[in-house]
Write a structure and sequence with these properties.
31% helix, GNAT family acetyltransferase, 29% strand, Aminopeptidase, GNAT_dom, seven-stranded mixed sheet, Acyl_CoA_acyltransferase, alpha+beta
Length: 172
């Protein structure tokens, strides 16, 4: 298993995994991801914020990171945190606890980037996903109604989000 930055050659596969994730979301009757703009992914790749797990030279999982997320985290955005977004897993590799691998990677990544928190969100109150993220080491912070969603992907508009956090001070 190798964790590395995604590159421009991965864009087709990234969008394929987003479509697969959206199809999976449809089966769970939860909020669906919109179709993301290619420019967003290109920017994340250029800024080295789009990541992938490779298993046997195949993309098993992708995600993006950010160091700021004020519209979702409000005043807490002032905390030094890394924010994980849009985890999508290749169905061939489901059930291999790849989010736990991302969490272990994120702990080192956060420390290397002088961050004290690892944070994530998911739209809505998806109880099975909340339970899974708790098993991966996150604390469930709660459900928050978003106020200012201008510029956020459309699935955040008029939405409540579940917030998750790992406080690295608590893991020492």
């Amino acid at each position: 298993m190798i964790i590395t930055n995604s590159n421009a050659e991965d864009i087709g596969e990234i969008f394929s995994l987003y479509r697969v994730a959206t199809d999976f979301q449809k089966t769970k009757n939860i909020v669906l991801w919109p179709e993301f703009k290619q420019s967003l992914i290109e920017t994340e790749i250029a800024e080295k914020r789009q990541w992938k797990i490779l298993i046997d030279n195949e993309i098993a999982c992708i995600w993006a990171v950010a160091f700021s997320d004020p519209q979702i985290w409000g005043e807490q955005n002032a905390d030094p945190a890394v924010y994980i977004h849009r985890i999508a897993t290749n169905p061939k590799f489901r059930g291999q606890n790849l989010v736990a691998e991302i969490v272990e990677w994120a702990k080192k990544y956060a420390v290397d980037n002088h961050k004290k928190f690892i944070r994530m969100d998911t739209v809505g109150e998806n109880k099975p996903l909340i339970s899974y993220y708790l098993k991966c080491g996150f604390d469930f912070i709660g459900l928050v109604k978003l106020i200012d969603t201008d510029g956020l992907p459309e699935h955040y508009h008029n939405a409540e989000v579940s917030l998750f956090e790992i406080n690295l001070s608590d893991t020492d």
